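QA checklist item 7 of 12: single-chain prediction sanity check.
[x] sequence parsed
[x] length recorded as 97
[x] structure emitted
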Amino acid sequence: MKPHRRQPLYLAFLLHRLSGLALEDSAGLDRFLHWSAAPLVKLAEFGLVFLLALHLFGGLRLLALENLPWRAPQKNFAAIAVAGAFFVACGFLLQAF
């Protein structure tokens, strides 16, 4: 196996290239765009965005807990992280429809 194929980014290149080949013709792209406009797909995208935003805000909360001096209101950071993630995901969902 060639050395460059052992790199992690080679897998990203390969997936990018294969997905481009799968949508090479305009009819395939139109079918994919029609499928991606389905409400169930939009709901799944909402779930993904919510989980990504939750991960982001949870990481920020963890950084604050580890690096700031401890105070009682820091317990509320978990609730703020979930609420922030929910609002980000809802904003995405509103733009999707």
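[x] summary fact logged: The chain has a mean pLDDT of 81.
[ ] second reviewer sign-off
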